Amino acid sequence: MTNILPRKDVVIIGLGWTGSILANELADEGLDVLAIERGPWRDTGTDFNIGYVQDELRYGIRRDLFLQPAVEAMTMRNNVSQTALPIRDYGSFLPGNGVGGAGVHWNGHTWRFWDSDFEIHSKLTERYGAARLEGLQLQDWGITGAEIEPYYDRFEYLAGISGKAGNINGKIQSGGNPFESSRSRDYPLPPMQMTYAPTLFAEGARSIGWHPFPTPSANLSEAYVNPLGVAMGQCTFCGFCERFGCANYSKASAQTTILPVLMKKKNFQLRTDSEVLHIDLDKSGKMARGVTYVDSSGVEFYQPADMVLVCAFGLHNTRLMMLSGIGKIYDPQTGEGTIGRNYAYQTVSGAQFFFDDKNFNPFIAAGALGQTVDDFNGDAFDHGPLDFVGGAGINCLPSNGRPIATRPVPPGTPRWGSQWKKATVSAYKSTMSLFSQGSSYPTSYNHLDLDPTYKDRFGRPLMRITFDFPDNDLRMSHYVSDRMVELGNALGGRETVVPKLKKGWDALAYQTTHNTGGVVMGNDPRTSAVNRYLQSWDVPNVFVVGASAFAHNAGKNPTGTVGALAFWAADAIRNQYLRNPGTALVSA
Amino acid sequence: MRHSLALLVTTAMCAVLSPWSASAADQADQISRGQYQAILGDCAACHTKPGGQPLAGGAPLETPFGPLVPPNITPDLETGIGSWTAEEFKTMMRTGIGHGGKRLYPAMPYPAYTKMSDRDVSDLWQYLTTVQPVKNEVEANQLPFPFNIRFSLFGWNLLNFTEGTYQADPSRSDEWNRGAYLVTGAGHCSTCHTPKSIMGADQEGQFLKGSSLQGWYAPDITGGNHTGIGSWTSDDIVTYLKTGVGTKTIASGPMAEAIENSTSRMEDADLAAIATYLKSLPDDSKATSTALPANDPRMIAGQAIYRDNCSACHSADGKGAMPLFPALSGNQIVQQGSPETPAHLVLFGSQGAQTDARPTNPSMPSLAWRLSDKQVADVLTYVRNSWGNAAPAVTESDIKKTMESR
């Protein structure tokens, strides 16, 4: 039996970054807001206790903060000719779980996508001709960089991002990223103090004519009080960011930036340990009536609401739309349907430079402490003579020197025994690691849909991921790997190791949790699931917010753009939608 | 509560055209002033249960004599104070003798409220008659024999209680007198901050010099520099009471509640008056502490524990990082005669006060699970005797006592 609850103005599914931002904005608007979160309540003092949070085995290896496959698994395959099998242990990517979502355990790299990203199809066609984009399913986002700029700014000031602007109102700033799009003002805090590895990386990069700059970081360089009045602390360089919650209030998350204010609001309520099964539609199928969820004791509730905001992790957003029957599921054979379309990932590759005479003290670190080179990212360079589009940031971000997992050794070293121990001792302090954060461009065949065989604990079909690295992206990655070799040679270490990314994505080894697309935004309802305001084309009182809206993934971490889109959607709801609720902000 | 008041005020304003208009407007004014008296007196601190209906009865107060439960003071006829008259209320506030001649236990701070003016008491009464009546039977007296015999309070009052409204000191400024009136009257600061005799009465000559309370230590708030607030400017005090965050410290424990419910909602002029008065209280402490030498074994052990467990937030030099991480260097709360508050913070953790101006309310995590009593004692000894701090060493038995207080 389903229990029927009193109506709410707004139901938000998932209380991570986007859910918190939207909840706070709409509560300020005076609406009665309820957030329903699948995982537990989490707060700094109780859950990221300074006394035990730096437990690598518990959090880093056993992944205590993450979604467990028993709660929700997914199936995966590389192409449509294969039969997908369940991911029984999340490895390649690690979805978050609980209040704060993946924003709890991130490293804190906080990027803006460039103006050329939001109009990627138009700009690349203009520059290189339509033929260059063949085999890719690139499309414009329906917004411009200038439109989204103020919302990036709001996110950066909310989160206390530490960095150096490279372009303020069209003027290039020395010390910043000269390739970034124009911004209205600098970051709220100066860059973090650099450790030795990124300092040396920057020297080497400059020596070969590149333009290194401090990576914009959500690990705070100084104490900060954000516009909501919430105070954050200066990062202590403990080196426990990714996979961990921050005990020092130094890493931006919903917990450290919004929740202290949001949780006190009388018109906001949170229900944790409650999983939304689906969004309920009225008889016409054109309006949402609310959501159905199950609490931790298995009791089912129907929660009526005037508006539903889907704010879970991008992959979960896509699946919820499918399970709710909103829009049509994408079919790679016909190209019809939009839910599950333009799924993209991130094209990541690494490099290790082994030195004999350096001591990098890798344990003095923070998740986003380092330097980046964007000379080969996005549209920063001429692809005319090249055989691909897109690019990658080259990053020296030595985020940790943790004892279990950070054990760099040169190729050919035995994997155990005295030789391995010897190599570990010699390489631990003297190895510089880089990675290239590459763009991932959509194709007609990479997509998400529902698995025909495997079901979750409630009997709902699992989501099926069909993905492999497109040839374009592999060519891009190899090109950037060659650049990293150049840098390694310039730095003159003993050994430069730059393995190249191969076809055949697998779900085992960790690569990145930057899964994008599935419910993409755009101006054409045939190729996008939500309009430019992230409002469903099919059910206008449903908004879907997150990386699920990305029409492609750039060579940058997604969180900055996710935050900006949340503020952008909140603004559209507050200033446009609420004047005439239940109607489409853009006519199809 | 605010809503019902707003409604009343609106009703009163609508009545402007009616023959009763003048009295209605006056009444609205009076109720509004009475609500402010309830804030000054922090009635809700005791009479509202956490998460409960406003003023419908509080959580039990653990006194050295046994539990007392703050009664329902909503105007419910049967279970609240709905059947009281204004005169009975005034008598109770003045003398501790309630409806039907029943004597109140001095957990109800009538020894302070007796100082309130007739007008303020009458305003408060008017306000209390307007709050939402709630039916909630409370048995206030849950004391064991012989303390449950209310007549014993007759003797207590004879020995410990002086009735009478506040008498202004004409040699002092109006601001000082306002401060004295608030601190000794409605604000009833001495209920927590003045040490108590074996009978539970304020100790002679120890006014606001600090006292143990529910496993915490309500610190010395007289004008002394070492343990008192002599080194605080008036602005520092006002900011602390308004926001919960001072220049070096963040309110926690019972004071966080007092700030959230009461002082953060007081008028700035009243906070300034309180500051003026407190700073004028003489520093006549005879004992001055000298810091333990750094080579004391407890100091050496304490420093190592501090570096490992505390310095990431409170910094190696004890300066902290306000407004998030309190400074320990020069912070009076760590240098009180009793180490109960810092011991409580280390053992159980705490969440700071949350106010509109300072919404973060950061947490001090509990460290009891990973530090032995000896380690807690040593690290507190170190904190109390470093960076210019000086206070008696902390012993394992001090820590055990705090551990058992909960």
UniProtKB/TrEMBL annotation, chain A:
**EC numbers:** 1.1.99.3
Where does the Glucose-methanol-choline oxidoreductase N-terminal domain lie?
232-344
Its needed co-factors are: FAD
Give the signal peptide range: none
Q: GO molecular function, one example?
A: gluconate 2-dehydrogenase (acceptor) activity
In which domain of life is the source organism classified?
Bacteria
One Pfam family of this protein, by short name?
A: GMC_oxred_C
Enumerate the transmembrane spans. none
**Glucose-methanol-choline oxidoreductase C-terminal domain location:** 442-566
- Which SUPFAM superfamilies does its entry note? FAD-linked reductases, C-terminal domain (SSF54373), FAD/NAD(P)-binding domain (SSF51905)
Arranged from A to Z, the UniProt key words for this protein are: FAD, Flavoprotein, Oxidoreductase
Top enzyme class, one word, equals oxidoreductase
InterPro entries xrefs:
FAD/NAD-bd_sf (IPR036188), GMC_OxRdtase_N (IPR000172), GMC_OxRtase_C (IPR007867), P2Ox-like (IPR051473)
Task: Family membership, please give it.
Answer: Belongs to the GMC oxidoreductase family.
Q: What is this protein called?
A: Gluconate 2-dehydrogenase alpha chain
TrEMBL record, chain B:
Query: Where does the signal peptide begin and end?
Result: 1-24
Q: Name one Pfam family in it.
A: Cytochrom_C
Residues annotated as binding heme c 2 are C189, C192, H193
Q: One GO molecular function term?
A: heme binding
**This protein's UniProt keywords:** Cell membrane, Electron transport, Heme, Iron, Membrane, Metal-binding, Repeat, Respiratory chain, Signal, Transport
Write down how the cofactor binds this protein.
Answer: Binds 3 heme c groups covalently per subunit.
Kindly list the cofactors needed: heme c
Compartment annotation: Cell membrane
What is this protein's record name?
A: Mono/diheme cytochrome c family protein
Q: Which organism is this protein's natural source? A: Rhizobium wenxiniae
